[in-house]
Design a protein that fits this description.
It contains 4 helices and 8 strands. By secondary structure, it is of the alpha+beta class. The protein has one domain: Peptide deformylase (Peptide Deformylase, Alpha-Beta Complex), CATH 3.90.45. The strands form 2 sheets. A 5-stranded antiparallel β-sheet has the order 1-2-3-6-7, with helices on both faces. The protein has a 3-stranded antiparallel β-sheet with strand order 4-5-8. The longest helix has 16 residues. Bound molecules: nickel (II) ion. Nickel (II) ion binds next to helix 2.
Length: 183
């Protein structure tokens, strides 16, 4: 168990498609300790989610869980969910635009449109197949983390750069920016 260094934007690992994890390797100590490190690193930096490429491992593994409310004070707490080789099986047509940040774009924020509801399929850390339905902020975090596995960052998904904000300005002005003014 260890806290790992977070790759920052500009590092090519964040722009590569991550490799699928062979199912027979899921119970290996390398994969199991990588998952433990992802959980520890996400907690340490108060992330709502983390993808393996963010700790320099180009593998299709994500952790989603809002176990700390400091970075996302308006969100509901959800336990950590680990998904290996995740695939979005369905997206709702219904979308919502809201603020996102990323540990790999340190203290930069912007508004991103995402589907309100999704179904994600993949494998848990025991190697069992799982299907997860997610809504709202949790669905947003899943979409953001799965994007990392394909070399996409939230800024790529912004329909306008008008909301792009550094942390101090985000904390000062974001509540003033109405969603409809940004469309
Ligand atoms: Ni991110």
């Amino acid at each position: 168990m260890a806290i790992r260094k977070i790759a920052q934007t500009g590092n090519p690992v964040l722009r590569k498609k991550a490799e699928l994890v062979p199912l027979e390797n899921i119970d290996s100590s390398a994969i199991q300790s990588l998952i433990d490190d992802m959980i520890d690193t996400k907690e340490e930096y108060h992330g709502a989610g983390l993808a393996a490429p963010q700790i320099h491992e180009s593998l299709q593994i994500i952790v989603v869980g809002i176990g700390d409310s400091e970075r996302y004070p308006d969100s509901l707490l959800t336990p950590d969910t680990i998904i290996i080789n995740p695939k979005v099986a369905s997206f709702s047509q219904d979308m919502d635009e809201d603020w996102e940040g990323c540990l790999s774009l340190n203290d930069l924020w912007g508004m991103v449109k995402r589907s309100n509801e999704i179904v994600v399929e993949g494998y848990n850390r025991e190697g069992g197949s799982i299907e997860i339905q997610a809504k709202g902020f949790t669905a947003r975090v899943f979409q953001h983390e799965i994007d990392h596995l394909y070399g996409k960052l939230f800024v790529d998904r912004m329909s306008s750069m008008d909301s792009l904000s550094f942390g101090p300005e985000f904390r000062r002005y974001s509540k003033m920016l109405k969603k409809e003014e940004l469309l």
